[in-house]
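Quick illustration, no need to memorize.
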Amino acid sequence: MKVIEQNKIIVYNVKGYSAIDLVMGGQDLISIADSSLLLDQKTVDFNIKNARIYSGIHKQKQLIFEEVMSVEDTQIDGNLKVYANGVIQAFDKVIAILNDKFQPFFF
């Protein structure tokens, strides 16, 4: 079975948590998740693990959401740049992380 080499941004709907996967070339992954989610292995396994297996992920780099959102204008990886106020550029897409009042993450 051949895995299609494409870039994907996957935003997970996990109640009470934030989790985003950036899949590069079909096999490498940068995962950004809440530190509290990473401590809850059952929730990760139930909500996220199967999607990663299905995508054929081989290598994973784990980033903590709170740490990524606290830096300003920093290149994290060749495909990931973080700007002030919770704006992430992944591949050729820009994502604004908003709070529950639809304001920028650190507003």
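The chain has a mean pLDDT of 80.
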